[in-house]
Structure formats: C-alpha cells, structure tokens
Amino acid sequence: MSDLVKPAVLFSEAAIEERIQDIGRRITADYQGREVAMVGILKGTIVFMADLIRAVQRPLTCDFLKVESTKDQRIDVAFSPETDFRDREVLLLQDVVDTGVTLNFITGHIQEDWKPRSLRIAALIDREDQRKVDCTVDYACFKPTRDGFVVGYGLDSDEHYRGLPYLGILEKKKT
Ligand code: IMP
Ligand code: MG
Prior knowledge:
- The chain is an alpha/beta fold.
- The protein has one domain (9-162): Rossmann fold.
- Helix content is 24%, strand content 31%.
- It contains three helices and nine strands; from the N terminus they run E-H-E-H-E-E-E-H-E-E-E-E.
- The strands form two sheets. The chain has a six-stranded mixed sheet with strand order 4-3-2-5-6-7, with helices on both faces.
- Helix 1 packs across helix 2 (46-55).
- The chain is globular, with a radius of gyration of 16 Å.
- Bound molecules: inosinic acid and magnesium ion.
- The site of inosinic acid has 13 residues, from strand 5, helix 3 and strand 8.
C-alpha cells in the first residue's frame, strides 16, 4: 500500500454512519410487515451491505450478484444466486451509479429472470448528472458534487482501497 496515494476524505466515517442509519430507518419504515431480500452487487457493496443489514430493522435475507464487462464492452452476469425471488421484495445494492448502464443491465436481468414481486435500488454513490440511460435509485446515500474517482468503504481502484474506512476521492478518474 505504501506506493499508493492516500485519498482525500470525501465522506468521513461519521458521515457514512449517520447516512446509513438514516437510510436504514427509511427502509425499515417502507418495508413494514414485509421481508427484505437484499442483493449486493459484488464486490463494491460488501461493506455497505454489512452496515446496512444492521441498520434495517426488518427480517431480511442476503444474496449476491456479480457482473463483468466483456472485451467488447458488453456487460454479462458472472454469478447469479439460485434463490427463487418470485415472491420476494428485492432490494438491490449498488456501489456507484454513474451513467446508469451497469444498473440498467442488472435491473433488466433481475426483472426478466427472477421476476420478483418488487425491486428497489439502494446506491452508496449516485451521480445523477452523469446518466446516459434512465434508471431510478430509490435510496441514494451520497450524491457527490466533486469530480474524481471514489474509493474506500468497499469501493476499489484496480482492487485497491476497499478497506479504507471512509469514502475517499482520487483526482484522476480510473476505471
Ligand atoms: P455506470 O455503469 O457508468 O453507472 O458505472 C457504474 C460502475 O462503474 C460501478 O458499479 C463501479 O464499479 C464503477 N464506478 C464508476 N464510478 C466509480 C467510482 O467513482 N468509484 C468506483 N467505482 C466506480
Ligand atoms: Mg471497481
């Protein structure tokens, strides 16, 4: 890690904790009397999910979905749970929603293949002004106004920084 730059703080641990508690309360209220089927998109949502499941006071289950970009820039499902979601209320967790292309593909896959009773989206970072395709984020934790690549709290840049306890920002945008 020594040759990696230390990212500037975008959102502190305390700010994240407060925001997760807020979102957790909203989800708890919105899902009264219902069980939440949380699905985290790997790997960026691991820390977000670990905190959110403890902030939501509803019965819930956890599953994971993984997508990957192919050489010709298409998105493909790399790993999908075998769970039957037909009668389930799916709450999908995404790390970053930027152009919306990734989320749009995933929600399309879920609606067509899983046919859940309901589908909502929670995103840690929502860059609404960058959308190229339509997609709705029901629970957005943070909408940063600063330019740069966000890392930490599960989010990576070339697999680095996932263990950083805060959300940091790198000046140069890397994918
Ligand atoms: P989109 O398809 O343009 O909405 O991009 C979303 C995906 O790109 C996310 O799932 C992330 O993996 C990645 N991504 C985009 N911006 C960032 C960022 O600032 N930090 C970390 N990952 C990002
Ligand atoms: Mg990544």
